[in-house]
Amino acid sequence: MRSKHQPSAVTAILGVHDFFGELCLAGYPLRMSTAVALTASSIRTIKKEKMLHMLRKGNKASNSLVAYLLSSVKNYRDHVAHLLTSSAEKRLARVLLRLAHLDKNGPPVVEIPILSHQVLAEMVGTTRPRVNLFMNRFRRNGFISYDGGLEVRQSLRKVLRNR
Question: Residue 144: what are its φ and ψ, rounded to 5°?
Fold first, then answer.
């Protein structure tokens, strides 16, 4: 999200079946935020009027949106709590686990696209040199590897339990 006088910030990592732009349903202006795809993606656009109609009907799509919004509220609360209580190293581990889908039940992503350390720093709320330090530490400990792509291993969860 960005305003005239503020730098940009990564506020969410979206995945399959996630919604984007849902704030327009509450009357917020067009383009409160932007999205960037890190891999090939397929996106379905639903016009505001059609979505409002579906919400009034109470069909499968409206139930899916309501469930997504409630889940988002919980995720934002958890995220803020982690920002306030976790070290930058733990925040980075959490982001990497989320990108690899190792924070959920379901199949993990074997390899995720390599993101620059600057982008990871923006996602975590720290500096690029600190991300570089943590990534090297994660690699030395066998939690990640990168050889053309970034592989995140389940063992990275140890960082969240330690320190």
Answer: -140, 165
Distance CA(102)–CA(36), nearest Å, equals 21
CA geometry: angle 3, 65, 124, nearest 5 deg = 45
Alpha-carbon span 46 to 61, nearest angstrom: 11
E strand or H helix at 88: helix 88-99
Rounded Cα distance, 20 and 66, in Å:
13
Question: What single-letter amino acid sits at 136?
Answer: N
Choose which CATH entry (3.40.30.10, 1.10.238.10, 3.40.50.720, 1.10.10.10) describes domain 87-161. Answer: 1.10.10.10
Residues 13-65 pLDDT 10s:
777 778 888 878 878 776 667 777 777 788 888 888 888 888 888 888 788 88
Distance CA 113, CA 116 (A): 10
For the chain, the structural domain boundaries read 22-84, 87-161
How many residues are given for the chain?
163
Q: How many alpha carbons lie under 13 Å from residue 51 in its C-beta half-sphere?
A: 16
Are β-strands 144-146 and 150-152 bridged in parallel, bridged antiparallel, or unpaired? antiparallel
What does pTM read for this prediction? 0.69
